[in-house]
Write a structure and sequence with these properties.
alpha/beta; 7 strands; Spore Coat Polysaccharide Biosynthesis Protein SpsA, Chain A; 226 residues; single chain; 18% strand; 9 helices; 41% helix
Length: 226
C-alpha cells in the first residue's frame, strides 16, 4: 500500500522541517510513504526546508487557504495512485505516532475514512477550542446530517475509495466540515480514533482563529444551498 501524507503549509518555515523529520518512514502494512507539502503561496522558506527533508513540494502561486491545499493534495493522490491519504497539520499540533493507529482501520479494510478526534478521551484542549469545535459539530450535523466529535480535526485518513469520490470545492477553513458532507454524500463508512493534540503558542497562532467561526458557518450554510 502506498501512503501519501498531505501537509498544507503557509509560511511554516519555523516548524515544517521538524514536522517532516519526525514523520514515520516505515509503517507495518505500508510499502511506500510519500510526504507531500502543499506550499500555499508562502513568502518564507517553507518550500526550501521541505525539499531539504526529501518531501515532494507543490506550490500555489497565491495563498488559497486550507481547502485549496487539501484539494490540490487529493488531486495529486488520484494522479499518483495513492492507496491511503493522511492529512497532517504543518504547525506541530499533531503527534506523528498517531498516524499508525489512524490508518490501521483502513489497512484492515474496516472503513473508508478515519477521523483523529481530540475529544474522545479527556485531553488538554483549550476551553475556547472546545466551545468552537462543539458549535462547529452542531453546525456540521444541521447542515450535512452527520455527527462527529471533532469536525475541525486536521488529522484524517482516507482509503482509495474515499480518495476517488471526495470532491473538495471550498478554499478555506470550511473544508473541514465539507469533508463530512462528502462522507455523507458518497455513503462512506467512517470511524473516529482518539488522538492527542499538542497546543503551543505557535500552533495556537497558526490554527483557526475564534473570529473565523461565524464566517466559516456562513460559508458552510451558503454551500449547502447550492
Amino acid at each position: 500500500m502506498k501512503l501519501l501524507i498531505i501537509l498544507p503549509a503557509f509560511n511554516e518555515g519555523e516548524k515544517i522541517g521538524e514536522v517532516l523529520k519526525n514523520l514515520p518512514n516505515k509503517i507495518p502494512g505500508v510499502s511506500e510513504i510519500e510526504k507531500l507539502v502543499i506550499d500555499d503561496g508562502s513568502s518564507d522558506n517553507t518550500a526550501k526546508i521541505a525539499l531539504s527533508q526529501k518531501a515532494k513540494v507543490l506550490r500555489h502561486i497565491i495563498n488559497r487557504g486550507l481547502g485549496g491545499g487539501i484539494g490540490t493534495g487529493f488531486e495529486y493522490a488520484r494522479l499518483t495512485g495513492a492507496d491511503i491519504v493522511v492529512t497532517f497539520d504543518s504547525d506541530g499540533q499533531h503527534r506523528p505516532q498517531d498516524i499508525v493507529s489512524l490508518i490501521k482501520p483502513i489497512i484492515e479494510k474496516k472503513v473508508d475514512v478515519v477521523i483523529g478526534s481530540r475529544f474522545i478521551k479527556v485531553s488538554e484542549v483549550p476551553f475556547d477550542r472546545i466551545v468552537i469545535n462543539f458549535l462547529s459539530n452542531v453546525a456540521t450535523f444541521i447542515l450535512f446530517g452527520i455527527w462527529t466529535s471533532d469536525s475541525q480535526s486536521g488529522l484524517r485518513a482516507f482509503n482509495k475509495n474515499a480518495i476517488s469520490k471526495i470532491e473538495i470545492k471550498t478554499q478555506k477553513m470550511e473544508v473541514s466540515s465539507e469533508i463530512f458532507k462528502e462522507i455523507k454524500r458518497n455513503d462512506l463508512k467512517f470511524t473516529e480514533i482518539p488522538i492527542k493534540a499538542i497546543y503551543t503558542e505557535y500552533s495556537r497562532k497558526k490554527g483557526q482563529k475564534n473570529s473565523n467561526a461565524v464566517p466559516t458557518f456562513i460559508k458552510m450554510f451558503l454551500r449547502i444551498l447550492r
